[in-house]
Amino acid sequence: MSAFHFYKYQGTGNDFVIMDNRNGEYDQLTEQQVNRLCDRRFGIGADGLMLLNKREGYDFAMKYYNADGRESSMCGNGGRCLVAFARKMGLNQEKLNFIAIDGPHEATLKGDDWVNLKMQDVDGVEMGSLYYYLNTGSPHFVKFVDNVQSMDVFNEGRQIRYNDRFAKEGTNVNFVQPTTEGIFVRTYERGVEDETYSCGTGVTAAALMSAGSEEKEYVVPVQTLGGALEVRFTKTGERSYKNIWLCGPATLVFEGNITLP
């Protein structure tokens, strides 16, 4: 039997199991255990699992697993939740610097649960006739639609994620509709293989693609099924973006212990 002490966090409904692994006690987590812990019927229930690790030269390191149990690419809302968790674990610096699978990040906190997370610069976007494809720490397919609230995101997203081009590596699929204030985004996530309430790297990709042609600073309010986020960035060229910040709430849901066979 394996016993785990865990915390559950959520950022606009994107929810995560988090463990403090700074002493290495969860280094031996298996794919099956992660999958079970994230299971909504037989485990804690989450879109992913994260470990707060130690890393020389950084305040901490982020290790992220999808709900299917496999280590995955960067998760924006996960990163924000892990920053809030790091603060709870006593890392009280005004600015936190951490390393994730896609490289270094910095983050600041406002109040108890508002996290501003700096994302990697984006340089290069594939533009199709009806879509954009780019990497914001994870690969994202972005499609603008007129009826985002009534869409069958599960089936339409799955169709794109499993088409010939993406089937092997997978992609996340975002459906985006402009609103009077900003954009509304719904996302099908690989690794979860379903729609999630929110996806940080997806929201970031959608916000970048909603920018006009002008090279300047943008602030894009984003609505998701799980709540409101904000993406700030500077467009520096036709397909290049810098100083990208994903901003939004990250809150503790509960803390507990679980034993797995």
Automatic annotation (TrEMBL):
Active site annotation, chain numbering: C75, C199
Q: Which residues bind substrate?
A: N14, N66, G76, N77, N172, E189, R190, G200, T201
Q: Pathway, according to UniProt?
A: Amino-acid biosynthesis; L-lysine biosynthesis via DAP pathway; DL-2,6-diaminopimelate from LL-2,6-diaminopimelate: step 1/1
List UniProt keywords, sorted A-Z: Amino-acid biosynthesis, Cytoplasm, Isomerase, Lysine biosynthesis
Identify the SUPFAM superfamilies for this entry. Answer: Diaminopimelate epimerase-like
Subcellular location field: Cytoplasm
One GO MF term, please? Answer: diaminopimelate epimerase activity
Stated EC number for the protein is 5.1.1.7
Q: Could you confirm whether the keyword Ribosomal protein appears in this record?
A: no
- Biological process per Gene Ontology, one example term: lysine biosynthetic process via diaminopimelate
Q: How does it assemble?
A: Homodimer.
Q: What is this protein called?
A: Diaminopimelate epimerase
